[in-house]
Structure formats: structure tokens, C-alpha cells
């Protein structure tokens, strides 16, 4: 018998001979003349119905048990699904004690409850759908960049640079070093951290490969317990050489968002519908509006003026020279018709040293851009990079970072070109397209309560 996945069996255009399927029981219904099972192997939100003789039922055949079923795939007489499996043998591979099993049959468990079961929540419909969506979105991101001529780079997870200079980094030391005196020799000769961004490494490679991207884990030691922050998350980052236009960077951001979202919607319609139907009923319309419309562009100056004239009272008073808070970002998107908004040309003093000076007089801004999306706020951040050696030397000198970033100055001495790039938080992207309120519900493993999974 050929072994097939549930998804393959459900999608089969015609009946099949001897087939074998393995998975977990989602329901058991025994009648006088027939035994019905629904089994799932994670390949599909929809379960496969198995029809069997009652003699095949056993004490271990319960909700949650792992089974191997062999039989014939036939047309289902019911309209709910195309095919069903007529079982000839049912083997219980792993029994399940349904009384102590935390997931209960035919119950829609709240996300707060599932968050407390990091080792079991992937067996729920909600988290099963999420993981399939994550997988398809990951593949779509890679396809987008590969199709547009980008080279995929594995940037370091352990690094000595802080990138954004915010100091919100996790420092690395061995357990032995943590227990011994600070005077002891350390594993690394210099302080080492978990990366907050692969950008500076990408800039190095972009000096030889023109278009590069990375997609991997990043870490922020920001002490925030909000619904939109994680200490460990995945970041999509790209760098483009030979570009002098911030619009080029923005176009890649918009194309990436729309291409990946369209792919996910077409490949995971049932999984996405689960979220839109039960958790965020209005999100489907928002997404359609986002995909249909051109993203709006406003300057930081315009953004501040819009906020100052708003009838809404903000917790943080909007002033020129201050960073935009989440409440400001959400208002700006709403003001622009619930369409994603690019905010460009931020004050020079607000942004990191590597962003290109606009040389625009007394206000003094840099060629930076943030992409704001409905209900979330910032999704992407990017800029043109400062490729002019004198400008970069001057700024690093004022910040006292010349020695630290001497290698970065070298990039400007040897074949420097205008270039730029951006980063997008993957989990925040998923949070938006699915309409999930808490970002912890779009990661495979929440960080509590099991210390062994921390």
C-alpha cells in the first residue's frame, strides 16, 4: 500500500487502491453497523474521514491516539468531502489517555489556554493552521527574493556589533564564566551578543553581490511585555546596491508584502479563513483593501502636522524631533484611509549613524522610511545608507565610534556605491494578515510556563 498524506488523499481526483495513512485521531463515532474516524496528520486543516467495520474498534482507539490505517480511497457519498477511506486495518501506534489529555474533543480552546501548553498546542486546529501559514509565508519570501535576483546570505547570530546602537542586546557568556570572576579569560576575546540585525553584514556582501537578503532569528533585550513585541523573532532583511532612490527601497517593501500575502491567501485559504472567521472577522476586508491599493507616502514633517491637528488626545504629545509612538502610527494609518503608509525623511538625530544625510537645511533629516500598517503600526524600517566617506567619518567621530567601525569606513574607501535596504519583522507581518491580537500567538513556542522550553 502506498503511504500518502491526508492532504493528498483529500485532493485525489479519483479513487485509489490500497493506500496507507498515518496520523492522529480527531474524533471517534461508533454506531451499530459502522465505525467513523476523523484523522489528521498536520498536512491539512480538514480531517480525513475513515469508515470501518465496528470490529476494528479497540480500547486504545480514542481521541488523540496515533494510528496507521490501511484501506481503499473511495468517493464519499456525503457532500462535506470528496473522498473517504474505507479501512481494512487500523493499528493504534500510540494510545492517548483522553481523561488527562489537556485538549478536549470538539472544543475551541482560547488562545490564552493554548499558550500554556507549548508542547501540545500544535495539535490544535488554530496552531496547526498557523504553522502551515508560517511555512508557506517563509517559502514565499524566499521565492520573492530569488525570483528578483537576490542572493540569500546566512548572517551571524553571534556578533560583536549592536547595529542600531540602542544597547538592547543579549550578551553571551558560558555558564562557567557566569559563575567565575569577571577577571577570568572569556570564551570570546571581545564582548559578544545575540544579533539584533543582520544589516551590517549584508552591507558587506552587497558590496560584491549587488542584491542580497537574509531571513533569520534576531533578538532584542527590550523589556516589553506588549502584544506586539518579542525578545526572539524572525527578521527579513535586504540590501540593494546601485540605488540612489528611497522610492526603490519602498517599492521592494510593497512588492514583497503584496506578493507574499497573495501567495499565502492562495495556498492556505482554509487556514487563513479559520483566523478571519473566528478571531478577526473584519481582517479579510482590510487585507483586500491593502492588496488592491497603492501604499500612501507622507513625510515625517507631514506626519507631525497631521498628529498636531488631530482631535484625538495622545498619551505622548507629537512634536517635531520626537520619535513616533505606536498610538501615532496607528492614527496616521487611520487618517490615510486604513491603507499602509510610508513615512519618510526622519530627523537626523533620531536615526542610526548609517542612514544617508539629506543635507536639507535647518531641520536636517535622513533618507529613512518606516512602513506603517493598520492596527499594528511599524512593520518595516529602512533607509538609504550613507555611502560618502567624509559624511560617515564625521558622524562616527562625533559619536566616538570611529575605532569600532573602522571596517565600515573601509567599505566606503574601496568601491563604494549608493545603496540601501530594509528589514521586516516576520511575526508582526503574520500578526497583521491573520488579525491576531497577541504576537505570542503567531510563534511556535511561547516562552512560558515550561522552563525546559525557555
UniProtKB/TrEMBL annotation:
GO terms for biological process: asparaginyl-tRNA aminoacylation. One of its GO terms (molecular function) is asparagine-tRNA ligase activity. CDD domains: AsxRS_core, EcAsnRS_like_N. GO terms for cellular component: mitochondrion. Residues 131-444 form the Aminoacyl-transfer RNA synthetases class-II family profile domain. Its EC number is 6.1.1.22. The keyword ATP-binding applies. Keywords: Aminoacyl-tRNA synthetase, ATP-binding, Ligase, Nucleotide-binding, Protein biosynthesis. Pfam families: tRNA-synt_2, tRNA_anti-codon. PROSITE patterns: AA_TRNA_LIGASE_II (PS50862). InterPro entries: Aa-tRNA-synt_II (IPR004364), aa-tRNA-synth_II (IPR006195), aa-tRNA-synth_II/BPL/LPL (IPR045864), Asn-tRNA-ligase (IPR004522), Asp/Asn-tRNA-synth_IIb (IPR002312), NA-bd_OB-fold (IPR012340), NA-bd_OB_tRNA (IPR004365). Belongs to the class-II aminoacyl-tRNA synthetase family. PANTHER family: ASPARAGINE--TRNA LIGASE, MITOCHONDRIAL-RELATED (PTHR22594:SF34), ASPARTYL/LYSYL-TRNA SYNTHETASE (PTHR22594). NCBIfam families: asnS (TIGR00457), PRK03932.1 (NF003037). This is asparagine--tRNA ligase. It comes from Upupa epops.
Amino acid at each position: 500500500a502506498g503511504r500518502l498524506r491526508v492532504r493528498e488523499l483529500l485532493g485525489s481526483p479519483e479513487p485509489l487502491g490500497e493506500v496507507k495513512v498515518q496520523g492522529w485521531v480527531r474524533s471517534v463515532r461508533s454506531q451499530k453497523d459502522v465505525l467513523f474516524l476523523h484523522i489528521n496528520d498536520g498536512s491539512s486543516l480538514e480531517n480525513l474521514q475513515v469508515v470501518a467495520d465496528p470490529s476494528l474498534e479497540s480500547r486504545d482507539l480514542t481521541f488523540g491516539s496515533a494510528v496507521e490505517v490501511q484501506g481503499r480511497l473511495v468517493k464519499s457519498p456525503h457532500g462535506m468531502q470528496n473522498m473517504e477511506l474505507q479501512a481494512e486495518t487500523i493499528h493504534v501506534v500510540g494510545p492517548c489517555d483522553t481523561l488527562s489529555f489537556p485538549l478536549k474533543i470538539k472544543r475551541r480552546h482560547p488562545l490564552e489556554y493554548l499558550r500554556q501548553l507549548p508542547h501540545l498546542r500544535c495539535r490544535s486546529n488554530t496552531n496547526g493552521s498557523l504553522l502551515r501559514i508560517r511555512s508557506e509565508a517563509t517559502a514565499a519570501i524566499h521565492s520573492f527574493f530569488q525570483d528578483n535576483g537576490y542572493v540569500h546570505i546566512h548572517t551571524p547570530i553571534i556578533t560583536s556589533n549592536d547595529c542600531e546602537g540602542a544597547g538592547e542586546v543579549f550578551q553571551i557568556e558560558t555558564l562557567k564564566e557566569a559563575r567565575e570572576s569577571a577577571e577570568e579569560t572569556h570564551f570570546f576575546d571581545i564582548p559578544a551578543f545575540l544579533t539584533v540585525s543582520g544589516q551590517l553584514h549584508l552591507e558587506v556582501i552587497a558590496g560584491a553581490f549587488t542584491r542580497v537578503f537574509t531571513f533569520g532569528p534576531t533578538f532584542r533585550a527590550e523589556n516589553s511585555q506588549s502584544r506586539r513585541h518579542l525578545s526572539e523573532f524572525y527578521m527579513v532583511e535586504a540590501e540593494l546596491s546601485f540605488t540612489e532612490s528611497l522610492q526603490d527601497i519602498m517599492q521592494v517593501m510593497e512588492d514583497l508584502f503584496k506578493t507574499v500575502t497573495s501567495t499565502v491567501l492562495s495556498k492556505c485559504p482554509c487556514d487563513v479563513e479559520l483566523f478571519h472567521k473566528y478571531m478577526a472577522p473584519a481582517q479579510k476586508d482590510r487585507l483586500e483593501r491593502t492588496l488592491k491599493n497603492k501604499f500612501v507616502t507622507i513625510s515625517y514633517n507631514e506626519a507631525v502636522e497631521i498628529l498636531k491637528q488631530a482631535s484625538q488626545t495622545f498619551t505622548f504629545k507629537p512634536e517635531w524631533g520626537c520619535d513616533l509612538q505606536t498610538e501615532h502610527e496607528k492614527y496616521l494609518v487611520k487618517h490615510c484611509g486604513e491603507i499602509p503608509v510610508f513615512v519618510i525623511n526622519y530627523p537626523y538625530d533620531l536615526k542610526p549613524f548609517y542612514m544617508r544625510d539629506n543635507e536639507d537645511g535647518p531641520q536636517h533629516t535622513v533618507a529613512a522610511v518606516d512602513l506603517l500598517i493598520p492596527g499594528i503600526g511599524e512593520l518595516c524600517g529602512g533607509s538609504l545608507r550613507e555611502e560618502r566617506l567624509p559624511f560617515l567619518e564625521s558622524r562616527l567621530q562625533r559619536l566616538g565610534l570611529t575605532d569600532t567601525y573602522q571596517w565600515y569606513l573601509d567599505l566606503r574607501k574601496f568601491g563604494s556605491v549608493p545603496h540601501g535596504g530594509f528589514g521586516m519583522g516576520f511575526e508582526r507581518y503574520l500578526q497583521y494578515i491573520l488579525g491576531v491580537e497577541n504576537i505570542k500567538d503567531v510563534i511556535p513556542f511561547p516562552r512560558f510556563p515550561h522552563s525546559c522550553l525557555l
